[in-house]
Design a protein that fits this description.
This protein is α/β, with parallel strands linked by helices. The chain folds into three domains: 197 residues, Rossmann fold (3-Layer(aba) Sandwich), CATH 3.40.50; 212 residues, Dimethylsulfoxide Reductase, domain 2, CATH 3.40.228; 125 residues, Barwin-like endoglucanases (Beta Barrel), CATH 2.40.40. Helices cover 28% and strands 16% of the residues. It is built from 25 helices and 26 strands. The strands form seven sheets. Strands 5-4-16-15-14-6 form a six-stranded mixed β-sheet, with helices on one face. Strand 4 and strand 5 form a beta hairpin. The longest helix has 19 residues. The protein is globular.
């Protein structure tokens, strides 16, 4: 260690799910270098994004001062102003819009971003709730289809502890690529250890991923958005060959007979055979049958789907079908098994997410009826309200308002923790919507694609410039120590909201500094808070947790929180909604913009929008070290490239009726023919003709939600031509 340097362990958080542990060196108030966790095993080692964070903190384009727009909206021209002017403007605009149009006309857009237990999305919700209310969102971009399916089937969501995969004889990674997405620090290492211990891995994915290269004994390519058909055909094999666990189904599930009738074709005259699924999925019938037999006869076996196949039209059906297969094979509630959920378990820490400052109750929500298609469960109480906007439909709502059937006419937007225009579907429509608003205020660290449309920019600091804590999928808790002063005039989320609350005349916004909040929040989980601050981490490494273990071991005392008290293969809650596109049992429903859509004649290639190792969604796209790591390019198979005269490195147009992007082509055998991959998160950068040159995948995606709320970013058709 250099003279005068001091090292600190700090938990990271940028909406990737890792919460890895950084060793940060500071001298004279400046971060000099960063290393990874070098403490006791198992270590919470960093990904490449964490290791590049110093470039982000000291980036020359970082937003360091309050700004106001001086050019046309979207032009990105601003001038520096004082915090007092910035906050006074936001407060006066909120009051004006609320008094003129009502509080529902104010929309708060947010997402994961940098957020901990104190500095998070709820801080501004409390401000607006106490000031009169605002319109909030529902529809988590990552996993709303999975959440809907969990609530309907199990009563609450759960995931698989990655440390338990070593106990699996077979693990089926369905659309899951933990080597890149890092949804749980140590997941890749856990898979590698399981591989060494003898676990057999099968990867089902349109791409030959890094994870497949790391662990797969077999790769099964599949056509995007058809995963549900493959699972249902597997169920057909398991049923007709009498491989299902009847005792488990009789004891723990409700409604399997109705699902069985659908699978066998008793309901519609179409048996869901592997041959039926082959024509839909492109997986050979023999392969589907082999996969079904191996899964049903190997125990314990873990079916580990990711969120990605559920980010499709009718994606909630995929997750419900996966849960049903897990029940049919009796792999729920046991070590080495899985309830059909991905690797996302954060263990059994007694710390609930979001346990800090309460929002105070949003008056706009309080006066809103429930949506007819919402599940009547506690988890979906907020998202089930008519007043809330689905994240896929926000821009449509802004453009159409009450005339389009929405709850209000929307005039003001406030955003924090999200580059919204970039990360949600149909960017060109979003541009028109943002330009139509009367006022936009944005909390940000950079002048992002969305920030260019702001009237007022409020600079937020990084997690090195304030104190907080994050909950990681180690499972662990990580402390975020303030090690440097905020750069420029940037402020924390809490400090910004305290000042804005004061401008709005709110006297009871907050009564504790961040450290007091943290000590209070950590109390249930951290026995020695001072030690926690010093080491930067509290690890919970007892026996790997098993989702639904109590419900399976002792159903009399631990019933599932569903109407039947069991795993609902036939969901009584969904049946009560009476919507054909939300069937009470898992079914395959042909997605829009599939290969069978008439639109495929014009746009013959299916689009997927995968995660990228150099970014956490939109974050880090502007960091030089990470831009050198991997090129933003459209991946396509040689069978699609050659007829189009496309070679690797060529600039190509990727387009449909919603928009066009121009980026390099990567010609590779690692993606199946008929499918192209534009990694999501690249910053939207339109030229003078409105053609995006940044490679933003959401220029091409459809702004329509799936019936259960899934955002269908992997259901779309495009064409690719040389530019």
């Amino acid at each position: 260690m250099a003279s005068g340097e001091k090292a600190y362990y700090i938990g990271t958080d940028m909406n990737c799910g890792g919460a890895c542990l950084l060793k940060v060196y500071v001298r004279d108030g400046v971060i000099t270098r960063m290393e990874t966790d070098d403490g006791e095993e198992p270590q919470l080692r960093n990904c490449l994004r964490c290791r590049a964070y110093r470039q982000r903190v000291y980036a020359p384009d970082r937003l360091l001062y309050p700004m106001k727009r001086v050019g046309e909206r979207g032009e990105g021209k601003f001038e520096r102003i004082s915090w007092d002017e910035a906050l006074e403007t936001v407060a006066s605009e909120y009051k004006r819009v609320k008094e003129t149009y009502g509080p529902a006309a104010v929309v708060y857009l947010t997402n994961g971003g940098d957020m901990g237990q104190v500095h998070n999305t709820r801080t501004i919700v409390r401000v607006f709730s106490l000031a009169g209310g605002c319109t909030l969102m529902w529809g988590i971009a990552s996993n709303e289809g999975w959440m809907f399916a969990c609530q309907a089937t199990y009563g609450y969501p759960a995931g698989v502890d990655h440390r338990d995969v070593i106990n699996s004889k077979l693990a089926i990674l369905w659309g899951q690529n933990p080597a890149v997405i890092i949804d749980g620090c140590g997941s890749s290492f856990a898979l590698a250890k399981a591989k060494e211990a003898g676990t057999k891995f099968i990867v089902v994915d349109p791409r030959y991923t890094d994870t497949a290269a790391l662990v797969a004994d077999r790769w099964i390519p599949i056509r995007p958005a058809t995963d549900t058909a493959a699972l249902i055909a597997m169920a057909y094999v398991i049923i007709t060959e009498d491989l299902h666990d009847k005792r488990f189904l009789d004891t723990y599930t409700f409604g399997f007979d109705r699902f069985q009738g659908y699978v066998l074709g008793e309901e519609d005259g179409v048996p869901k055979t592997p041959a039926w699924a082959e024509g839909i999925t492109s997986i050979p019938a023999q392969t589907i049958a082999e996969l079904a037999r191996e899964y049903a006869t190997t125990k314990p076996a873990a079916l580990l789907p990711s969120k990605a196949p559920g980010r499709t039209a009718y994606g909630e059906q995929f997750h419900r079908a996966a849960f049903t297969l897990a029940a049919m094979t009796g792999n729920i509630g046991i070590h080495g098994g899985s309830p059909g959920c991905e690797i996302t378990q954060r263990g059994t820490t007694p710390l609930p997410m979001g346990s800090a400052m309460k929002t105070g109750g949003n008056p706009v929500d309080a006066g809103s009826p429930r949506r007819r298609d919402a599940l009547p469960t506690a988890i979906s109480k907020g998202p089930g309200l008519v007043a809330r906007l689905h994240n896929s439909e926000v821009m449509d709502a802004i453009l159409k308002g009450k005339a389009g059937g929405y709850h209000s006419d929307y005039k003001m937007v406030y955003t924090a923790n999200v580059n919204y225009l970039n990360q949600y579907p149909n960017v060109n429509k979003a541009v028109r919507a943002l330009q139509s608003l009367e006022f936009i205020a944005i909390q940000e660290q950079f002048i992002t694609s969305t920030a260019k449309f702001a009237d007022i920019l409020l600079p937020t600091c990084t997690f090195f410039e304030r104190s907080d804590a994050v909950w990681g999928a180690g499972p662990h808790l990580a402390y975020q120590r303030k090690v440097i002063e905020p750069l420029g005039e940037s402020r924390s989320h809490l400090d910004i909201c305290m000042a804005l609350a004061k401008k709005l005349g709110i006297d009871n916004y907050n009564d504790k500094p961040e450290e007091e909040w943290l000590e209070q929040i950590m109390a249930p989980a951290v026995t020695d808070y001072e030690r926690f601050k010093e080491t930067g981490v509290e690890k919970f490494y007892s026996e790997p947790s098993v989702p639904f273990k109590n419900e399976i071991a002792d159903p009399a005392n631990y019933p599932f929180p569903t109407p039947s008290g069991k795993i609902e293969i036939y969901s009584q809650q969904i049946a009560a909604i009476e919507t054909p596109l939300l069937p009470a049992i898992p079914k395959y429903i042909e997605p829009w913009e599939s290969v069978n859509d008439p639109l495929a004649e014009k746009y013959p290639l299916q689009l997927i929008t995968t995660h990228f190792k150099r970014r956490a969604h939109t974050q880090f796209d502007n960091i030089p070290w990470l831009r050198e790591l991997e090129l933003q390019a459209v991946k396509l198979n040689p069978q699609d490239a050659e007829p189009r005269g496309i070679k690797g490195g060529d600039l190509v147009r990727v387009f449909n009726d919603r928009g066009e992007i121009v980026i390099p082509a990567e010609v590779t055998q690692r993606i199946i023919p008929g499918v192209v991959d534009v990694p999501q998160g690249a910053w939207y950068d339109p030229d003078e003709r409105g053609v995006d040159r940044g490679g933003c995948a959401n220029v091409l995606t459809k702004d329509k939600r799936s019936p259960g709320g899934a955002m269908p970013s992997n259901s779309g058709l495009v064409q690719v031509e040389k530019a």
